[in-house]
Sequence to fold (144 residues):
Amino acid sequence: MRKQKGISPLVAVIMLIAFTMIVAGILAGWATRFATEQRATLEKCVRANLVIKKAIYDTVDGNVSLMLYNAGTVPLKDFMVQVTYDDTGPLMPETWNIQTTLGANAFETFTHNISSSSIEFVEVRSIECQGAYDLLRGYDIVIS
Fold:
């Protein structure tokens, strides 16, 4: 029977070092791209500011109208709205998305039908820049 030989320890060490360098190169490239993207997003979102200027609840048709103002210096794209009701009923918070772009220093009004007039608060948040949001208490909402 013939005795089989493995690779020499020197070749094994060289192969392990080469493999480690390849993996490190791939991870370094990914980390650089990831950090660059995060920095660009952060630099943009620092200049973002969203304000709910007015909210009106129409008791006839059950709609809430929100006037949003982008007080920042960058356009904001796509928003999430959450309406939370007071503790008197079993209603869960309602959430919906507004897919639009709101330019810098621009106003826009959005209307949505909701379940109840017993609003505790309304929150609007930019999906793109999570720090750009505003919250309005129920007593600040005009009932018409």
